[in-house]
């Protein structure tokens, strides 16, 4: 049995636009992307959903606030929506959850998007204004603050790959947006600490484990080393953080061939429905690299698209085993959040993702054809055993 320390956090994560339903006033809802629509109707069913999480033995939950609900227009505050999120957080506290709250998870209010979004430095000021409002209204209910979810992913898919709003394709604009988002995080960090000096504030960063396709190749090793350094040092080390939020899903193998950098597929990989290779060892390697920053680490997302629920139990066990391996070696990892609590709207990227609801990450199945019925998957019971015993039986 692999025992975890007392106080280790076990939870699951969700994001407002992906689960709440009824959000129409942000850049995603009014773009050419397929809409989330009613989603899981978590907005009205959050008590049911969090009771399920409690039943599964979790002691923490990660949610996000929808900026466009709270501030639908510049300097216009929707107190009814603030009250809603207050009720959500109070209910989580009633159930005994440690609360992790993300302030901006990919979506932007329309009025921000129309003013240039993250490409405008003014957005950093508007974000700080919004953060201050959240701090004064809800801060007493928030244990861990996540300012921005995956700024590098948001910036690259929106401004370099033209895959997400605002559908731009400019590397220079990507760099500008990324820098603005990191600056916004730092400004929000100071704002939150102004209200709550002892607050735990950070952001989440999606990090793949990058390795050389041929470890005997100097150039392959150099490429992988550079990729790891740029994703870690250039983000966490240059920003203010009380903890590190890690989202880990997959790893990459790099090869230099004919003067071009290429990703190389593994031999006989186990692939998720999304086509990602399952590679738990990569989580340990990333944790090992983050340890040099000497900050508490929380795995804020780790999950698998698996509609048939044949991979999820093994996926969870494999990754939790690597988390324990890291803990045993003195790496300060303090919590693990599975993505996601529910099947939900997943940000479409692949050609076969036509509605956003194709990929099933949830511990809890949501029947989108029959009244959004919640069904606890068998794999969720495997995770529940880990949560309830604070250990992994091997």
TrEMBL record:
<protein>
    <recommendedName>
        <fullName>Beta-glucosidase</fullName>
    </recommendedName>
</protein>
<dbReference type="GO" id="GO:0008422">
    <property type="term" value="F:beta-glucosidase activity"/>
</dbReference>
<dbReference type="Pfam" id="PF00232">
    <property type="entry name" value="Glyco_hydro_1"/>
</dbReference>
<dbReference type="InterPro" id="IPR017853">
    <property type="entry name" value="GH"/>
</dbReference>
<comment type="similarity">
    <text>Belongs to the glycosyl hydrolase 1 family.</text>
</comment>
<dbReference type="InterPro" id="IPR033132">
    <property type="entry name" value="GH_1_N_CS"/>
</dbReference>
<dbReference type="GO" id="GO:0005975">
    <property type="term" value="P:carbohydrate metabolic process"/>
</dbReference>
<keyword id="KW-0378">Hydrolase</keyword>
<feature type="active site" description="Nucleophile">
    <location>
        <position position="301"/>
    </location>
</feature>
<dbReference type="InterPro" id="IPR018120">
    <property type="entry name" value="Glyco_hydro_1_AS"/>
</dbReference>
<keyword id="KW-0326">Glycosidase</keyword>
<dbReference type="InterPro" id="IPR001360">
    <property type="entry name" value="Glyco_hydro_1"/>
</dbReference>
């Amino acid at each position: 049995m692999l025992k975890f320390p007392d106080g280790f956090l076990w939870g699951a994560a969700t994001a407002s636009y992906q689960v709440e339903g009824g959000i129409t006033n942000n850049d995603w809802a009014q773009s050419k992307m397929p809409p989330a629509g009613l989603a899981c109707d978590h907005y009205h069913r959050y008590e049911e959903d969090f009771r399920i999480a409690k039943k599964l033995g979790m002691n923490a939950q990660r949610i996000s606030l929808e900026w466009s609900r709270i501030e639908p227009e510049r300097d216009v505050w929707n107190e009814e929506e603030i009250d809603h999120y207050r009720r959500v957080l109070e209910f989580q506290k009633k159930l005994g959850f440690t609360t992790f709250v993300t302030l901006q998870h990919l979506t932007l209010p329309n009025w921000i998007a129309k003013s240039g979004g993250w490409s405008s430095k003014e957005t950093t000021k508007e974000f700080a204004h919004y953060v201050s409002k959240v701090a004064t209204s809800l801060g007493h209910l928030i244990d861990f603050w996540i300012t921005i979810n995956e700024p590098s992913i948001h910036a690259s898919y929106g401004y370099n790959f033209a895959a997400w709003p605002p559908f731009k394709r400019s590397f220079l604009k990507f760099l500008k947006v990324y820098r603005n988002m990191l600056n916004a995080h730092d400004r929000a960090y100071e704002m939150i600490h102004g209200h709550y000096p002892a607050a735990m504030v950070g952001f989440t960063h999606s990090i793949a484990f990058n390795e050389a396709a041929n470890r005997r190749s100097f150039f392959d090793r150099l490429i992988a080393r550079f990729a790891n350094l740029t994703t870690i040092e250039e983000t966490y080390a240059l920003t203010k953080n009380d903890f590190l939020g890690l989202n880990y899903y997959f790893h990459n193998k790099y090869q230099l061939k004919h003067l071009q950098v290429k990703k190389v597929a593994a031999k006989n990989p186990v692939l998720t429905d999304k086509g990602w290779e399952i590679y738990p060892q990569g989580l340990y390697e990333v944790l090992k690299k983050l340890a040099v920053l000497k900050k508490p680490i929380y795995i804020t997302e780790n999950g698998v698209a698996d509609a048939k629920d044949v991979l999820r139990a093994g996926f969870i066990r494999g990754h939790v085993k690597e988390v324990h391996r890291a803990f045993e070696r003195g790496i300060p990892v303090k919590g693990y959040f599975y993505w996601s609590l529910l099947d939900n709207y997943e940000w479409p990227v692949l050609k076969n993702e036509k509605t956003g609801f194709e990929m099933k990450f949830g511990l809890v199945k949501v029947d989108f054809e029959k009244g959004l019925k919640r069904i606890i998957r068998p794999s969720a019971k495997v995770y529940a055993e880990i949560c309830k015993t604070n250990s992994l039986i091997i």
